[in-house]
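Tokens for SPFH domain-containing protein. Go.
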Amino acid sequence: MAIIDIVKYQTVDGELVHKFDSDDLRMGTQLVVHPAQTAFFVKGGAICDEFSAGTYKLDTENIPILNKILNLPYGSDSPFQAEVWFVNQTAKLNLPWGTPHPIHIEDPRYHIIVPVRAHGQYGIRVTNPRAFMETLIGSMGTFSSNQIEQFYKGRIISALNTLLAQQIVNNGVSILDINTLLLEMSDSINEQLNELLGKYGVSIIEFAIMSVTFPQDDESVIRLKNAKDLAARLSITGRDVYQMERSFNVLEAAANNDGVGGQMTGMGVGLGVGVGVGTTVGNLAGQYMNTNPAQVPPLPSSAPIYYIAINGQQIPNLTVEDIAAYIANGSVNASTLVWTPGMPNWLPLAQVPALVSLISSPTPPPLP
């Protein structure tokens, strides 16, 4: 093969690294390194000499490390073999990314595990050419531009599985509403990715999450939507009104049950739920009767705080809305033990008048 007199590389958009076609060089060969490029001489898998932008005539003085390996005579134009690699330091933009498999994340508000996918784009720039080359040679040996892109993309996707889950949990926003925070999440993940990938000599730029998606027909997503709907209803109508409405529905269903066994069940349900209804109605009526229309009513008393036991562990400081969310996601049922200040012992949720309406479902009367 002919000896090369000029070694140079015209940057190709999007190509991070390029190996010069020929290894056959000689002393006196001209090396041209364009702006935003760094050139490396590589021999036997080891990086030897490095050149920044400029034009160089190769001699024993400007390739001292390579010359030490080759032991070329001073001042000669002897031929030698070495690889020349050019690293492109311009940014490569608009690279797509996407989670190849769903990430199972617990919704931070409603505690339901949902399969989540995400996709977007990012850019990459070589900021430390030597660290970049050392990473490639040490990890891959031989490589193409496509292999390099896949090398970094694989590390980004691997990190994203953890970073996305952390961002969703840390923001405390339901997965159903997470698309309102994509910009803030993108900026934070961009910073975290740079901390992880800095050792490879690259920087991630303009990282963007374009969407976070989940299957609408998945059972966990349906349960999550139901939990959100229940929480919204409690917030809008007020806890006492919601409890009273649910209790009346249960009483009506019990009264319409014509069977003897159903009558006894209806009586039991009526007595248990009736206490809750009476308390709720009495409290509401008392508030209206004791309120002077000419005066500003006093602030309502604080809502009761409950404790529940799940798998032998106490979960403290829960409101009725919190317990409703646990019921919606299936973590709490009628037999779950509950305690609140003023109760001498733990009781099943079904025996707590103020909570029984959350689990009681009205049943239709028998068909005629």
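The radius of gyration is 35 Å.
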